[in-house]
Specification:
The protein is built from nine helices and six strands, in the order αβββαβαααααββαα. With 306 residues, the chain is of the alpha+beta class.
């Protein structure tokens, strides 16, 4: 059965034609209204998308020009300089990407300068510290030696995703910034409690506990600094500088591994687990004048093979 509108049969041909025109006109107007709505929605979507793109671009620009985080105080050379009494030399904080300011050695005084680049997850660094740490401490106590420690991070991949190298280096920067004269004790404690490679390393609470064991001042500030990784950007930047070079006042262009130990600018190439070898290198690097003016060094002792 077909549908017929009542009365349609009584319309003349002209009336039917006119009715068809009216219906077509109504359909056209309805379609125009739909087209206008679609156009408005489309334009709105384009404007919204454009605003979103502009916002993203603005965010990228802001992030690219945002000032980088500061580095720690007392590490303007990318390391911390420790002298007699294990007192740290003071220096102002630089921006993370600022060029470091090297510590100049006073060669006329006959002082001995030891520089160490270490990663606190590095087992070879741990071997060097276990073998030579007490000897280096005795040299600093003599008053004629400084030790400059540069924490760097190259072994994050070996801590099960916890980035222990970065976190431990950041922790040392926190101590340098807030309690610099306790840095050397904290440095030693990190190696005395060194985790194994391919472990998760010490967690932040354990690092914080070691800072307290080292007797730090401003313990709450250091705790927040460790948890927030306040100096993470500096750790990354200073590591890149060490790995790319140059290394000032030395006979090397860049750090190629840890530990890298320099004595009066000369790189130690001997065994990390042979105290006598390192002692002989120190005397060779400094000469007889240092040997005469310094107190006797500890007697070499046998070190178990690691």
């Amino acid at each position: 059965m077909s549908n017929v509108t009542p009365g349609d049969g009584r319309l003349s041909k002209n009336e039917k034609r006119e009715a068809a025109r009216d219906k077509a006109r109504i359909l056209r107007e309805s379609q125009k209204k739909k087209d206008r709505r679609t156009k408005v929605l489309l334009q709105g979507g384009i404007i919204f998308a454009s605003l979103a793109i502009v916002a993203i671009i603005a965010l990228v620009i802001v992030n690219s020009v945002r000032p980088v985080g500061p580095g720690p105080r007392n590490m303007a050379s990318d390391g911390i300089l420790i002298s007699e009494g294990f007192v740290a030399a003071e220096s102002a904080a630089l921006k993370s990407d600022d060029e470091p300011i090297p510590n100049e050695r006073d060669e006329a005084s006959g002082a001995l300068a030891i520089q160490m680049y270490v990663d606190y997850l590095c087992p070879i660094c741990g071997d060097f510290e276990a073998t030579n740490g007490e000897y280096i401490s005795s040299l600093v106590e003599n008053g004629k030696t400084t030790v400059e420690i540069h924490p760097i991070t190259i072994l994050d991949r070996l801590s099960q995703g916890t980035k222990y190298s970065t976190r431990s280096a950041n922790a040392t920067a926190c101590v340098a910034n807030y309690s610099p004269d306790n840095f050397y004790d904290f440095h030693n404690l990190l190696f005395a409690n060194q985790p194994a490679e391919n472990s998760s390393g010490l967690d932040n609470d354990e690092l914080i506990a070691l800072t307290k064991e080292a007797g730090v001042k401003s313990a709450s500030s250091i705790e927040s600094c460790i948890k927030d990784q306040e100096f993470k950007s500096w750790v990354n930047a200073s590591t890149a500088r060490a790995l790319n070079g140059p290394i000032p006042n030395s006979n090397i262009d860049k750090v190629e591994g840890t530990p890298t130990v320099l004595v009066n600018g000369l790189k130690y190439e001997g065994s990390v687990s042979d105290l006598a070898s390192f002692q002989a290198f120190v005397l060779q690097a400094t000469g007889a004048d240092f040997n005469e003016q310094s107190t006797p060094t500890p007697t070499p002792t046998a070190t178990p093979a690691g």
